[in-house]
């Protein structure tokens, strides 16, 4: 499709017939589907479904991530004209990718949300698709992991974060965005010996056996070196990738609930994600984008780029 064809296109979020291909529409108009993919609840023939979870009732500090999925979708329109830089292939033209919309849940019935989210992702997986989820606070990864572990068994977790999120919490009914990976280990959803955290810069002495590369290691050793080490730990084991936007330094992503200085730059994150190509990524998410704390939109733009990189990372192995 050439740029001239944009004159004849009418909101491809609804009118696109083919799930493949780039989009050439005004980035400032139309429905805010992710990457101008078609909005649909029909997963027939879909390889990967992008879905949003506008939930932020598990935060310990600043709320607002319920607005993250919408902001990330809007920011993603900036990336629809060209294949993603540095990958050497265009996942939008090789894989059928759809926007599956957001999880519907009763905001006043918080205890019911985790089960609804697991069912939501379970439905995507049972249709033969994978998912990339737009958060939402980081708790959402826990119900998602339950659905993925049902299909793949205990997973490797690749976590980009300022915080380990493995603080001890044996009450499985508590909904907290700082303890869910402790619970995921205890529940057998992830294999800590094959899991990696990158960008950590808050203290939690008990790593539960997860290999940790803190932010200082990335700064001192370089992103490419850390990516190589992380790949050695993950191997070809089915891996779920979760990217908390607070992995980035607040200079690059101020719109988040618990910002911590000394984090990764967006350039370091891009190198890490691209150099991790070849891992067996089965699904992923980008979380903790809180638009009210960033009037520039830079955090949402970073989140949209991360989501695109996750799609590229997922598609790399499946290209054969």
Describe the structure concisely for a colleague.
The chain is of the alpha/beta class. The chain has helices spanning 12-15, 68-76, 91-94, 113-126, 141-152, 180-186, 215-221, 223-234, 266-275, 298-318, and strands spanning 48-53, 97-102, 130-135, 156-160, 196-200, 211-214, 239-244, 281-287. The model has no long low-confidence stretch (mean pLDDT 94).
Characterise the protein shown here.
The protein has 10 helices and 8 strands. The protein has helices at 12-15, 68-76, 91-94, 113-126, 141-152, 180-186, 215-221, 223-234, 266-275, 298-318, and strands spanning 48-53, 97-102, 130-135, 156-160, 196-200, 211-214, 239-244, 281-287. It is of the alpha/beta class and 320 residues long. It has one domain: Arginase, Chain A (3-Layer(aba) Sandwich), CATH 3.40.800. Helix 2 (68-76) crosses helix 10 (298-318).
Give the CATH class.
Alpha Beta
Q: Per CATH, which architecture?
A: 3-Layer(aba) Sandwich
Q: Give the SSE order as H and E letters.
A: HEHHEHEHEHEEHHEHEH
- Sheet with most strands: 8 strands, parallel
CATH superfamily: Ureohydrolase domain
| Count of β-strands | 8
In CATH terms, what is the fold-level topology? Arginase, Chain A
Radius of gyration: 18 Å
Strand content: 5-15%
Count of individual helical segments: 10
Overall mean pLDDT stands at 94
Strand line-up of the largest beta sheet: 2-1-3-8-7-4-5-6
Helical fraction equals 25-40%
Globally, the shape reads globular
Structural domain count:
1
What low-confidence regions span 5 or more consecutive residues with pLDDT below 50?
A: none
The structural class is alpha/beta
How far apart the termini lie comes to 26 Å
């Amino acid at each position: 499709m050439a740029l001239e064809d944009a004159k004849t296109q009418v909101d491809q979020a609804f009118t696109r017939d083919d799930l493949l291909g780039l989009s050439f529409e005004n980035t400032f108009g139309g429905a805010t589907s992710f990457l101008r993919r078609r909005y649909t609840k029909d997963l027939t023939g879909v390889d990967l479904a992008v879905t949003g979870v506008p939930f932020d009732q598990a935060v310990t500090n600043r709320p607002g991530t319920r607005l993250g999925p919408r902001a990330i979708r809007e920011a993603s329109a900036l990336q629809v004209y060209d294949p993603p830089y540095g990958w050497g292939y265009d996942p939008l033209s090789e894989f059928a990718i759809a926007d599956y919309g957001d999880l519907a849940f009763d905001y006043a019935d918080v205890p019911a949300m985790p089960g609804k989210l697991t069912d939501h992702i379970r439905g995507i997986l049972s249709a033969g698709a994978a998912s990339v989820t737009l958060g939402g606070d980081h708790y959402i990864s826990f119900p998602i992991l339950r659905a993925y572990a049902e299909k793949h068994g205990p997973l490797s977790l690749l976590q980009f974060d300022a915080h380990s999120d493995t603080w001890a919490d044996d009450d499985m009914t508590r909904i907290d965005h700082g303890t869910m990976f402790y619970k995921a280990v205890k529940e057998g959803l992830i294999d800590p010996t094959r899991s990696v955290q990158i960008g950590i810069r808050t203290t939690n002495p008990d790593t539960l056996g997860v290999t940790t590369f803190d932010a200082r290691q990335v700064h001192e050793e370089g992103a490419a070196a850390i990516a190589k080490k992380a790949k050695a730990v993950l191997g070809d084991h089915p891996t779920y990738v979760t990217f908390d936007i607070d992995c980035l330094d607040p200079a690059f992503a101020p719109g988040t609930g618990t910002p911590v200085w000394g984090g990764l730059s967006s350039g370091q994150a891009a190198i890490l994600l691209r150099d991790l190509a070849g891992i067996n990524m089965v699904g992923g998410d980008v979380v903790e984008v809180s638009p009210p704390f960033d009037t520039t939109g830079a955090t949402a733009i970073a989140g949209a780029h991360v989501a695109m990189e996750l799609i590229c990372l997922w598609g790399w192995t499946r290209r054969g």
